[in-house]
Specification:
It contains 16 helices and 10 strands. With about 325 residues, the protein is an alpha/beta fold. It folds into 2 domains: about 200 residues, D-Maltodextrin-Binding Protein, domain 2 (3-Layer(aba) Sandwich), CATH 3.40.190; about 100 residues, Periplasmic binding protein-like II (D-Maltodextrin-Binding Protein, domain 2, 3-Layer(aba) Sandwich). It is found in: Periplasm.
């Protein structure tokens, strides 16, 4: 009787320990990281893929995404500590550096490598599009000093158009309201991201006639960045974050636009699947999505040229001042 009771107690103890060990294995500890994206766009498809496919979770990160419309608002959120990581144009880190910030903002993973906007005409253009046709038109532009506006001006100048002398340039409309302003009748031309450009084409509100991404060349257009102090305290998490982004970049390149569109659909609930597919396809065809999170020096110099042309650069900034490629290079080495 004693032996039987002893055996039962031993068995119960073994089951209890096994259950405890199983519970420990199942409750993987995660670290929260708050991202602020400058806008919601198919342009950022790899980010949504990383979230939907669980690539961040696989790295032990609990990522919280919020949209902080506009580069100035996104940077304010980062500097104030409202977010940990910003997804915004690399030019914003240069603006902070130019202001002499003691805690510089560092770019650590590139997401897009071309301008993501398209030139949309209100009227359908018969025959081949000629940039010369923009002269004396009303152009609904983007915020002064923002990457879309600077890349747009750079392209116009390349085609012999002075945006401030040859156009009636409108720049006083909030970033989030530009599409609505054009839809309501403001401007003959406008710069739009996807999927809005494709939506306007379907609705007959506009026609895509050119790509600013193709025209302005490769540059670190949208980058994940954070404060230098955050990197110093969270190097392991920044590496994990970058690993997940690179995995998502690879996934987008290796899958069809249809598969990517289905994956990111939860972030565009009011957008039809065929619009998402055409938007992803358009960005893939012009090489908008960066295949690697590494910021290349040649692309960085092109960014500086564009900022200099727009009169927004006090002095050329060496990449090392605001770029930390160590995490991106490590991610690529681990998953070539």
């Amino acid at each position: 009787m004693f032996i039987k009771r002893y055996s039962v107690l031993v068995l119960a103890l073994i089951l209890l320990i096994a259950g405890a060990l199983s519970g420990c294995g199942g409750s993987k500890e995660t670290t929260k990281v708050r991202i602020g994206e400058v806008t919601r766009s198919v342009f950022y498809a790899p980010q949504y893929v990383a979230l939907e496919k669980g690539f961040f979770k696989d790295e032990g990160l609990d990522v919280e995404l919020q949209t902080t419309a506009g580069g100035d608002k996104t940077m304010t959120a980062l500097l104030s500590g409202a977010i940990d990581v910003a997804l915004v144009g690399a030019e914003t880190s240069i603006y902070v550096y130019q202001q002499g910030a003691e805690d510089p903002v560092m770019n650590f993973a590139q997401l897009t490598q071309r301008d993501g906007t398209f030139l949309v005409s209100r009227e359908e253009i018969s025959g081949d599009f000629e940039w010369e046709g923009l002269k004396n038109s009303v152009f609904l532009g983007q915020r002064k000093g923002g990457m879309p506006q600077m890349a747009g001006e750079f392209t116009l100048k390349k085609h012999g158009i002075d945006p401030h002398a040859d156009l009636e340039l409108i720049q006083n409309i909030e970033f989030a309201n530009i599409a609505a302003a054009f839809a309501s009748g403001t401007g003959q031309y406008v710069q739009l991201f996807e999927p809005q450009a494709s939506i306007f084409e379907r609705e007959g509100k506009g026609h895509v006639v050119a790509s600013f991404g193709t025209e302005s060349g490769r540059l670190p257009y949208t980058v994940f960045m954070t404060k230098g102090s955050y990197i110093n305290k969270n190097k392991e998490n920044v590496q994990k974050f970058t690993n997940a982004i690179h995995k998502a970049q690879r996934w987008v390149q290796e899958h069809t636009p249809e598969e990517t569109a289905r994956t990111i659909a939860p972030y565009f609930k009011d957008t039809d699947e065929d619009i998402l597919i055409s938007s992803v396809k358009r960005y893939l065809e012009q090489g908008s999505y960066a295949e690697s999170p590494v910021l290349e020096e040649e692309a960085w110099n092109n960014l500086l040229d564009i900022m200099e042309s727009a009169g927004e650069l006090k002095e050329r900034v060496e990449p090392a001042k605001v770029v930390d490629n160590s995490f991106a290079k490590a991610a690529v080495k681990a998953n070539p």
